[in-house]
Design a protein that fits this description.
The protein is about 20% helix and about 35% strand. It has a 7-stranded mixed beta barrel with strand order 1-3-2-4-5-6-7.
């Protein structure tokens, strides 16, 4: 059964967007990744901080794994951990079958999932946001969200 969801707004600070773009480009040709800090507000989710992390996946061209020590440090910092970012260097910023397969591993900890790609117009970074939802069946899904500049 499909559940209807209101399109959520994700407010991203301009500084965070620049940091994400820089991290994505510096990680090429591999997938880049990091975590997002912010908070849920009445107007949607606000992302205040991007923390770049090393991708330690055995096959970083097609997968990402957050560096465990960095991830643990950020997780233990507590409040404000709100989302995850990773890139698709050579494909559109839409969830891949692998992204959806991995979603249950972390979806309960986050509300936002950002995917970036170098496939934008004129070589610009294209960034798309998704909100994470848990259905009545217990399964997680990614719903497109409106990504706004804060």
């Amino acid at each position: 059964m499909t559940e209807a969801h209101e399109t959520q707004e994700i407010w991203l600070r301009t500084l965070c967007e620049r940091q994400i773009s820089k991290h994505l480009i510096s990680g090429l040709p591999y997938e880049a990744c990091g975590v997002l800090r912010g908070k849920a507000t009445s107007g949607g989710i606000r992302i205040d901080t991007f923390i770049a992390m090393r991708n330690v996946a055995p096959d970083p061209l097609h997968h990402f794994i957050l560096e465990p020590k960095d991830w643990t440090r950020e997780y233990l910092r507590g409040n404000g951990l709100i989302g995850l970012f990773h890139s698709h260097p050579y494909s559109p910023p839409i969830p891949s079958p692998e992204d959806l397969r991995q979603l249950p591993l972390f979806a309960g900890m986050f509300g936002v999932y950002l995917i970036g790609s170098t496939g934008g117009a004129d070589g610009e970074i294209e960034l798309r946001g998704y909100s994470i939802h848990k259905g009545s069946d217990g399964l997680y899904t990614l719903q497109p969200a409106a990504l706004r500049k804060a």
